[in-house]
Amino acid sequence: MRVVAGKFGGRPLKTLDGQTTRPTTDKVKGAIFNMIGPFFDGGRVLDLFSGSGSLAIEAVSRGMDEAVLVERDRRAQAIIQENIKMTKSEQQFTLLKMDANRALEQLAGKFDLVLLDPPYVKEEIVKNIRILDERDLLSEDVMLVCETDKSVDLPEEIASFGIWKQKTYGISKVTVYIR
User: Fold this and answer.
1) Is the dihedral of CA 10, 16, 19, 21 positive or negative?
2) What's the domain count of the chain?
3) How much is the pLDDT for 120?
4) What is the pLDDT of residue 123?
5) Is 95 in a helix, a strand, or coil?
6) What is the pLDDT along the chain (179 residues), one digit of tens a residue?
7) Could you tell me the pTM of the whole model?
8) Helices 74-87 & 54-61, crossing angle to 10 degrees?
9) How far apart are the first and last CA of the chain?
10) By the number of CB atoms within 10 A of the CB, which of 5, 44, 48, 155 ranks highest?
């Protein structure tokens, strides 16, 4: 796995072996960012289920100013820290070592891009989006990118957001919500 494009493009990323995380393939990651960007002019990104940190690192590589990564698994946290170190831009990343629900209680400021790629067995996307909206953590032009198993049907609308784009890539489905 690697960073697909941007200032860190081509650099290798480490992933966690085993079943606790499910890394987004380079192909799907490239497709996601081509769908929503492909590049950004600043902003803050929240990666609520970081795994290896690949999606947040890709967002910063493509122009986001700052990333907040949330991961509860200790082994995944170590991988994220190694991947962040590889960027040599550690100041652009904050790793919160906790589960998503605890992080949602503690987050502050506004996010311009939110990446929701929970483990397939724990679909909490609807609840997470509602909490982010209720806590006023989302900018007016925020994009919410949800990656799920292709069999998962997310609602057309969640809180004040509606589906903007949706595509299936192999076993994964990517759904993008906007206001």
Assistant:
1) negative
2) 1
3) 61
4) 63
5) strand
6) 899 999 999 999 998 775 545 667 788 898 899 999 899 999 999 999 999 999 999 999 999 999 999 999 999 999 999 999 999 999 999 999 999 999 999 999 999 999 998 876 556 899 999 999 999 999 999 999 999 989 999 999 999 999 999 999 988 899 999 99
7) 0.94
8) 20
9) 32
10) 48
Report d(CA 35, CA 144) in Å as an integer. 12
DSSP of 24-83: PPHHHHHHHHHHH-S--SS-EEEESS-TTSHHHHHHHHTT-SEEEEEE--HHHHHHHHHH
Residue 4 lies in a domain: no
**90 falls within a domain:** yes
Of the candidates 88, 19, 78, the one whose C-alpha atom is nearest the C-alpha of residue 57 is: 88
* Secondary structure E strands in 8-137: 44-47, 66-71, 93-97, 111-116
Quote the Cα angle for 25-31-37, to 5°. Answer: 130
**Domain assignment of residue 56, given as a range:** 26-178
Write down the pLDDT at residue 24.
Answer: 76
pLDDT at site 115? 97
Q: Which residue has the tokens 């990651």?
A: 29
| Amino acid type, 77 | Q
In a domain? residue 14: no
Residue 18 within any structural domain of the chain: no
- 121, 127, 179, 168: CA torsion to nearest 10: 10
Q: Supply 140's token pair.
A: 């007016």
